[in-house]
Structures are given as C-alpha cells and as structure tokens.
Amino acid sequence: MSATELKCRECAARYPLEARYVCEQCFGPLEIAYDHSALGDDVSALRRRIQAGPQNIWRYSDFLPLDAPPGPSGRNSSRVGLPAGCTPLIRADRLAERLGLGEVWVKNDTHNPTHSFKDRVVAIASQRARELGFDTLACASTGNLANAVAAQAAALGMPSYVFIPADLEEQKILATGVYGTHLVKVAGNYDDVNRLCTEVSGERENWAFVNVNMRPYYAEGSKTVAYEIAEQLGWTLPDRCVVPIASGSLFTKIAKGFSEWTELGLLDGDQPKMNGAQALGCSPVAAAYEAGADVCRPVKPDTIAKSLAIGNPADGPYALELARESGGGIDSVTDDEIRAGIRLLAETTGIFTETAGGVTTATLAKLAERGDIGADERVVLVITGDGLKTLDAVRGTFEAYEITPSFDDFEATVEQGARI
Amino acid sequence: MSATELKCRECAARYPLEARYVCEQCFGPLEIAYDHSALGDDVSALRRRIQAGPQNIWRYSDFLPLDAPPGPSGRNSSRVGLPAGCTPLIRADRLAERLGLGEVWVKNDTHNPTHSFKDRVVAIASQRARELGFDTLACASTGNLANAVAAQAAALGMPSYVFIPADLEEQKILATGVYGTHLVKVAGNYDDVNRLCTEVSGERENWAFVNVNMRPYYAEGSKTVAYEIAEQLGWTLPDRCVVPIASGSLFTKIAKGFSEWTELGLLDGDQPKMNGAQALGCSPVAAAYEAGADVCRPVKPDTIAKSLAIGNPADGPYALELARESGGGIDSVTDDEIRAGIRLLAETTGIFTETAGGVTTATLAKLAERGDIGADERVVLVITGDGLKTLDAVRGTFEAYEITPSFDDFEATVEQGARI
C-alpha cells in the first residue's frame, strides 16, 4: 500500500502503521503518511484505474491505508462489509435560485448504507482493524457512528460495543440496537462518552475503537468525499465547500483529499474555500474563528443538532487554520435556522437531511445573504446524514389536511385550503 | 422509444401511450407493449450499451416507456429528478448459514433516494407525466410512495398532492410533509384512499396520479429491480426470488423484467421461481393461493406492515398465476415473525429493513424451515424499504446497558452483563 507510517501532526515523529493515535513525544494526533511514487505520473492512466474500480470507496484504495482493500462489493458482505460511498452529487438549481447563487451542488451522503458519511470512515477503520487482528469493533458516538459501527459489525460478523450519550434521539438508538450490538447508554454528553471510551480502549487489547485507537485510519475515510466530488465534477475542483464541523475531522480531511490529488496532478487549480458550519448551541470552533483565536474553548452542547454536539473538538485548531488559509470561514446557526435549513433543502432538491444538514444548508443561506459568495462560484454543500434520523426536528413545521374519503370533502377542504 | 402502445391485459385492446389505465372495452388493466426489434440481436453490444449507461435506472431506458429519458443524473435535479436504482445486491452468507441455505443474495432497495423501491416507479411515472404535459404530481399511498412522490416533485419543482390513510406511521408523515407537498390525511384505510384518488383523478385533468392514471408507466419501474439483479449476477438468472406483495405489481413486474430480457437473449435459462410474501394481517393473495382460488377476497388490513396493507390488491390474480406457473408460492407471516425477520436480517447482514422487509425475510425463513428451497439454489431476497421508516416495529426488541461515565461502572455493568 502507499501508506508508509503514522506521523505526528505536531512534531512529525513517526510510528509504524499500528493501532495508535497519539504521539508519545508530544501528545499530538497521528496521521497517515503516504508515498504515492509507485502510482507513477501518468495522470490519465491513474484516472482510468480509478474509474475502472467498484462503485464504492474501494475505487480509491490507492489513497487509503489498507494492505488489502476489499474487492468489488456484493460478493460477500461477511468479507467486504457494507458498500459505502459513491453517493450522488446533484446540481441544485432551484436551491441556488432561492439563495441568489450561481451554481450549487449537493453531495448527498444520505445515500450510504446507514445513511450518513460515517459508513465511509467505519468501512476503513473496520477493514484495518481486521488487518491488525482485532476481533471486536467499538465506538463513542453522537448517533450516526453508532448506526454505522453496529451495521458494519453485523455485516462483517464481528461483535461490537457502541457507547452513546443516554439522551440521544430515540431514532438513532433503535437504528443501532436492531443490529444486535452491545449498546451502552452513558449518562453524560458526547465528551463524557469519549473520555470513557479512551479509558476502555486502553484496557481492552482486542477492541478496535474506530474513533479512538483506530482514529488515524478512520479519519482517512473522509477524504473519499473530496475524491468523489472531484471525480463527479469531471476531475475539477469546486470553488467552495460548505461542510459541518463536529470534531473538525471531516472538514479538514475533505481539504486533505483535494490537496493530495492536486499534488499528484489529478486535479489542477486553486484549492476550494472551506466554510465550516456549526450549530450555535455547540459552536466552539465558530466562536474561536470569530474571536480570532487559534484554539477552541470547550462548551457544553445545547442544540438539536446532536450529531454535531462535540463540545471539545479534537481537530478544532486545524479547522480554524484551514478556514483562514483557504479564504473560507466558520459560522454558526440557531436551532430555528437549522429547521428552516432542513425545509429549504427538502423543498428545493427533494433531499431530506438530518439536523447536521440543516446546519450546513442554513450556513450556506447565511453566506449567500451576507454576499460572501461570488456569482460565478461553484459551491458544494456537503449533506452528511438523513432526515429520517432526526424526525423530531421537522415535527410541527408543516400542516396536513384531514378529510373523509369523499370527493366533496376533498374539494371543500383541500382545494379551498390550497387556494387560500 | 421501444414502447409502442397500451394494451389491455385481459382483451388485448390497444390504446395510444396516453394517461390511461383501464380498458374501455372490458375494464381490464392496461400495460405497456413494446417492439424491441430496433435494438438488434447483438446481445454483447446491447449489454455494453447498458453498462455504459448511468449508475441509475436510466441505464435501462431502452426497456422503459419514455420518449426522452433523462441523461446522467447529477447534472440538474430540476430536470432529471432524483437518481433511483442501481442499488446493491449483496451476498448474505451469514443469513444463508443461519437458515441452512446455500446461496442467498439481498437486493437492498433501501439505497434509493427516499429509501424504498418506490423511487423507481415514481421516477418513470413523473418523467412520463411531464412528457404528457401534466403539471402536478399526486398519489394514493401507504407511506413509501408518499415519501417518493413528495421528494421527486420537490426535485423536479412540481406541486404535489399526497393522499395517505390518516393512521399512517408518523415517521412516514413527517418524511413526506417536509418536502412541502400538499399532504392529505384521509380517514380510512388504503383502499378508501385509493378509491378517492381514482375519483379525484377523473376530475383534475392536469394532475398525474402516479399510481392511478399513470399506472401503466409507473408499474414498469419495478422491472428495473429484475434488470439490476440479472446484471449484478453477471447476466444470469437467480433460481428463486422472494418478494413482498401489496398490490402484486412489484411481484409480477420483476418476473416480467426477467422474461423480457430472456426473450431478447440477454439472459438464458429457466425463469426464477417467484415466492410472494404477505403479512398475515393483510394476506388476501396468500389466502387465495392456499385455497387454490384464482381471485382474491378483499380483507380489512390489520398488520404492522402498513406498506403492504392493501386489502383489495389490483394485481392479485396475476400474482397467483405467476406463483403457480413459476413453481414458487405465496406465504404469510405474523407480526411477531415480521419483527423477528427484521432482527434476523439486521444481525446477519447489517441491513435494517422496514416491516415489509421483515415480511420477506420471515417468509424466506419459513420456506427454508419447510425445506422448500434446494441446497444448490441461488435465492434473491428483495428488500423494498428502510427500517428508519417503521422504527416502532423494533422498539422493545433489544436491551441496552445504562451506565455512568466511569470505567468501574462499565466493567461492573457491561462486561458482567455480556458474560451472563
């Protein structure tokens, strides 16, 4: 594989490709380092090689940290797991028109096995976990990751332990427990859950916590969102991406995906402006951005966007740096704006997103209203999860007619109502 | 296009390709007739042409009743609508093992834009509606169709009216209203709703009811499930398909898809045995099958599988004929078996299905237990909709641990619990 070692993001110390996530020298986060020289410099050949791959993230295996990536999906779910990625990128002209923008695309990651982008990161973490000999999958989750880990473990035939905040939406609890995982509700918020999992991870040698000891592999999965966007735009870069921020990992790894491919010559031109989106009720990165700070002050989350409710975001400083260097920014929106964002996206595109996508759509609307987006910009809105997972957020946002099964009642109630 | 006319299934009377669904001579249902001779007889060339198409149902345009099928999806959702189809076919060895079967595949239609197979039929009905000049989409729905019509109308920028039984699951109501459709709750069951829509359809000339006046076009969408299965199995036929029955349309059209391609030489061999699956609480077709009857006696539905709750199934007689002629059958399962079916599929494949898929999985289990399936058979289980839509069905089917965020509590509660 082209991954060569783990490298500390802070002090550049190097480690073998094991289940490690923290630098022993400086406690900085570890990332995957690559040597892509074996891929050669024939860009056309490399593109054809990617296009000949399966319709899922394994088409990007050359850029992922696995010894033996699974073959085409479908052959045997117990070997290859659930097929993640290759989700639609849809041009949303009616959304653009409503916001007074030129060109808006929606990357719709609800088209994943458990309907969020977490299937990407879990696919990679779980495959690497098996390569490294782990026999049990585990995670700390705000909800979507719980669904993804429980489902992937079921597909692979591995036992799993999923730790969630006890107050998680019931939808995400039901959609996790159904897979037969060991579901652990922890009395506390996500940051409490995460601390507990870090401790458990140190004590259970055969457990692969996808977002703790497997984190460097896990995080690389988010790069595939960028690869797909670029491939779907005909091997070109967008001008701007609007992406939700929880830990900051997705936001920074999407940018890493674009820059990796640009360095390899697969893409040309300026890197996209990166705009981060947070819920006001949990906006440590947006607050630090506005204050001009380099680090985030932890907060206690209070928002309907629970999948973004990380009060102490691990990659906050890197997200801040990226937003500033790329010419983007980081904004936050209220819960009412989130609900309006969900409705706006649904009405103009037919895509129903969870609260996190409401955050992203509302942030795009805010950028548009502020005049931050040029008329000729090509903007990609990254929708990370499905509206079916946070149905409570749309309860009461629309009205229905109630009639008896008679044509007269239909005319009197519905048609009269529609004409008002 | 290769569609030539509408043809009465009963008396073979012919009509132009308009918005008609019932024969004026004998009141039989109208179907699409084709002349595929323009496709030629070079099977390899035809396969390559299909494979070069987009990753959605429009790759099968040569076999669908549209003048001008949309191009590759993604270009502009307001023109092409939501991208349906090309859902995964996954080999489920752990499910097969649990049931003592040889080779089981799951066709996972939860990977559609609104997470059910209805996106296929709506895609075709709505495109044809636009070709015929309609300006409004409408439907009578048991839930999944409501989601699909409201979403597709939003994507295409068309107004829509969705008629549902007032007692539908709240998940499906919320996941429909969010798109800004006119949502009409009718006090009655699906058959009452359907009768009302038939009446409204006769009175509103600019409304395309996808499953009333557009029904012949709509129904053709289900053939694409068969096309995909055959293509994904390397241009071969499965030995047996297990498919849910509501109106009977999906069941019969999947068989039509296989036989059409066999006649064209795209596939060889025996047609699959077709097994229909119903919920005992709404099993008019299974009851008629068991009684050796040719027609179904209408019933009042009482089952958790509301998406299959059609008490007076329009295609019941054709489903009976198909089950008998293909060497399959039609079975029914209890609500408890449905819940167990949902859990079985989730635990062994990582696929979370709604109640309809629980019906199908439980029926497969019943066939296996009865010894109806040969050891060397290749069986395809058709999963039509997503578990997130009927979460109530899994509430109470599993237990969770509840702990404080401390390692001691984790060890005492979770690990002790897991060991019991």
UniProtKB/TrEMBL annotation, chains A, B:
Its cofactor is pyridoxal 5'-phosphate. The gene is thrC_1. Pfam families: PALP. Keywords: Lyase, Pyridoxal phosphate. Coiled coil: none annotated. This is Threonine synthase. InterPro entries: Ser/Thr_Dehydratase, Thr_synthase-like, TrpB-like_PALP, TrpB-like_PALP_sf. GO terms for molecular function: L-serine ammonia-lyase activity; threonine deaminase activity; threonine synthase activity. Its EC number is 4.2.3.1. The modification N6-(pyridoxal phosphate)lysine is found at K118. Residues 84-385 form the Tryptophan synthase beta chain-like PALP domain. The keyword Lyase applies. GO terms for biological process: isoleucine biosynthetic process; L-serine catabolic process; L-threonine catabolic process; threonine biosynthetic process. Belongs to the threonine synthase family. SUPFAM superfamilies: Tryptophan synthase beta subunit-like PLP-dependent enzymes. CDD domains: Thr-synth_1. It comes from the Bacteria. It comes from Capillimicrobium parvum.
